């Protein structure tokens, strides 16, 4: 069940998204590497709501590592840093070319993936305020959108972060493991993954 996940952060990263992703994936037993994409290499960063986030390493320190998934939290400031980071964009490109999972939430699908035209034909969602960045025929007004043909998962915002993280677990480890992680967290019973244990 061991998986290795990269979660980059930067100044302006959306805290709820980053922490929910990191926490939930660690509950799944994954090794989650939290790396600073800050151009100055700072490990202590201030998120979009002035909450301090601390990375474990610099992005450059793990740039040549292989990951089962690269997961981009949102927050406009953080997503803009990701967009402008040649190193991070190259990591995402390599992940894509290798057929491994990329996941992005909130502003990140629009400001990073679409900006660099990384998934020109993939179905995706993002925060509704960035919907105009995504081609109408590819836009999905869903809380979480999974494009299995492109190994891509996207989601809409802080309130969808738990569902997003659970879908990453489903992709990597299956529904049974995802349910074992989600059930003790008392997920919203109206969400689809509450049924995993019955399948």
Describe the overall structure.
- One of its GO terms (cellular component) is cytoplasm.
- This is DJ-1/PfpI family protein.
- The protein has six helices and nine strands.
- The protein has helices at 15-27, 76-84, 86-97, 108-114, 161-173, 175-182; strands at 4-9, 31-36, 44-46, 52-54, 57-58, 69-72, 101-105, 144-147, 152-155.
- It has one domain (4-198): Rossmann fold.
- Helix content is 31%, strand content 19%.
- With 199 residues, it is α/β, with parallel strands linked by helices.
- The protein is globular and about 45 Å long.
Question: Which labels suit this protein?
Answer:
DJ-1; 6 helices; DJ-1/PfpI family protein; Class_I_gatase-like; Rossmann fold; two-stranded antiparallel sheet; alpha/beta
Number of strands: 9
CATH homologous superfamily descriptor? Class I glutamine amidotransferase (GATase) domain
- State Rg: 15 Å
Instruction: Give me the number of helical elements.
Output: 6
Fraction of residues in helix: 25-40%
What does the average pLDDT come to?
95
Would you identify the regions where 5 or more consecutive residues have pLDDT less than 50?
none
CATH topology: Rossmann fold
How does the overall form come out from the CA principal axes?
A: globular
Adjacency order of strands in the biggest sheet: 5-2-1-6-7-9-8
CATH hierarchy class name: Alpha Beta
Given the helix and strand composition, which structural class is it?
alpha/beta
Portion of residues in beta strands equals 15-25%
Query: At CATH's second level, what is the architecture?
Result: 3-Layer(aba) Sandwich
Pfam families: DJ-1_PfpI (PF01965)
Protein name: DJ-1/PfpI family protein
InterPro entries: Class_I_gatase-like, DJ-1, DJ-1/PfpI, Prot/Nucl_acid_deglycase
Organism: Vibrio paucivorans
């Amino acid at each position: 069940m061991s998986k290795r996940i990269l979660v980059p952060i930067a100044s302006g990263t959306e805290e709820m998204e980053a922490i929910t992703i990191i926490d939930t994936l660690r509950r799944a037993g994954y090794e989650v590497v939290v790396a600073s994409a800050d151009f100055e290499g700072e490990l202590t960063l201030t998120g979009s709501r002035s909450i301090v986030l601390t990375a474990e390493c610099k992005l450059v320190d793990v740039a040549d590592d292989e990951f089962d998934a690269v997961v981009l939290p949102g927050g406009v400031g953080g997503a803009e840093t990701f967009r402008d980071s040649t190193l991070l964009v190259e990591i995402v490109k390599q992940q894509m070319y290798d057929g491994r999972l990329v996941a992005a939430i909130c502003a990140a699908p629009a400001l990073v993936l679409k900006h660099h035209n990384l998934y020109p034909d993939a179905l995706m969602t993002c925060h509704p305020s960035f919907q105009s960045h995504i081609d109408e025929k590819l836009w999905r007004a869903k809380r979480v959108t999974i494009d299995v043909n492109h190994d891509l998962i996207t989601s809409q915002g802080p309130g969808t972060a738990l569902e997003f993280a659970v879908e990453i677990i489903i992709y990597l480890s299956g529904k049974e493991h995802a349910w074992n992680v989600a059930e003790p967290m008392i997920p919203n019973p109206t969400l689809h993954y509450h049924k995993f244990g019955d399948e």
